[in-house]
From TrEMBL:
PANTHER family: MAJOR FACILITATOR SUPERFAMILY (MFS) PROFILE DOMAIN-CONTAINING PROTEIN (PTHR11328:SF24), MAJOR FACILITATOR SUPERFAMILY DOMAIN-CONTAINING PROTEIN (PTHR11328)
Alphabetical UniProt keywords: Membrane, Transmembrane, Transmembrane helix
Ranges where the record places region Disordered: 219-239
GO biological process: carbohydrate transport
InterPro entries reported in the protein's UniProt record: MFS_2, MFS_trans_sf
Superkingdom of origin: Bacteria
Segments crossing the lipid bilayer: 96-117, 123-141, 162-183, 195-217, 263-283, 295-313, 325-345, 391-417, 437-456
Name listed for the protein in its UniProt record: Putative symporter YagG
GO molecular function: symporter activity
Gene Ontology CC, one term: plasma membrane
Amino acid sequence: MPTTSPQPQPTSGPSVAPVLSRRAIVGYASGSVGTGGFGTLPGLVLAYYLTDTLGVSAGLASLVVTVPKVWDVLLAPAIGAASDTSAARRGTRRPFLLTGALTLPFLFAAVFAVPAALTGGGAAGWVVVTFLLAATAYSVFQVPYIALPAEIAPDYTTRTRLVAPRIAVLAVAILAFGAGGPALRDGAGGGRPGYLLMGVVCGVVLGLGMLGAWWGAPRRGTRSASVPPRPATPSSPGRVRHVAAHLRTGVAAIAEVAAFRRLVAVFVLQALATGGMLAGAQYVATYTLGDETDVTFLFAALVAPALLVMPLATRVARRVGKRRALVGSTVLFAAAALALLPMHWAPGAWVYAPVAAAGVAYAGMQLYPLAMLPDVIAVDARERGAERAGILSGVWTAGETAGLALGPTLVLGILAVTGFVSHTATEAVAQPASARLGVVLAFTVLPAALTLLSLVPLSRYPLSAAVVDAPTSQEPA
């Protein structure tokens, strides 16, 4: 049964906005519990778990957090193509959503269930295998999930209405997992038992949110009458195979759609920045502020303002356009990150003010790209007469995954170069001054530089209205 009642968009004259059902809005928003939790908690604690609980060296830990994500980058376009094929044949992407929702909770818990006998390299091997499987399950859900807005809400304004509640739930999920996960760990006494409890509880909550998205997803595809219901790659296999062929299809899509290429570049660079800041937060709490539990307050200071300003961020996008609003958020985030640099010499409660300013910017850096993506997908489908939502979403997920993975990798690389000493939870170590400086640089200068770099492709992205409102518009490559 369709979850929306859209009206075809006429090429001239007034348009009738489609009506979104409550089930579609609530179901789509609930999926952000899964995406927010999995996108946040490993990035926040996994590197620290490896270096300060399992005794894995910073250099080896950087490989552990990167290898599963590299696999995910290769796999996501294949999942996207298979999702498109399923949508064309069955009229729905729900089987993918359900598969991811049922498998991820167990695999997520397994990442933090390293046997007591394993430390160092053995523990690293356990984490890399379980995290690879968890990342695969996540992609099976995430790729079709972010392809849904172009099908549920086939016009510019309605897509923003659909995505805004999802981003609000995303902000709540990020806050709940980012602050609550470490609190669960610390409440259980920290160390391996604390991480295990955190993994089990958070895994269950992830699965429940993802099941909500499956419940609310269309049982039969609903799309604009101007877009034929056929896949862009009808010869693609229905199962996830021939990964190289699907990866080439995704790369071709980047080459063919300039607006998409630039939007992906912006999102990847900003994912690198936020991934680096997330990974550095626990180290800042322990080695700069002097208390491991301060990570909960740091994270709350970053995310809570995003909750408060989300309605304002939506209104700003309607007034000035999504692209201009994203530029403003980007500049604010970089300035706030650089304002934190003096904490190396003068740590104190003042750091929460710049972190809160970064949180205000973070709201826009989440909302605007995700609201711009379905616009690009819709225009691509209209101009080419073929549905490529899954392929484009697969490339998007691959880019996001790469950014969020390489952010912690860069942080761990900085720690390794500056002489950080890894240890188990039962050992006490004093980090050298160079390593403590490296922690601050990874939390401040690195995110600021990457965020400012994202302004380059963003400056060449067309205004959102131009991308969507001109039925035959083509942006020069």
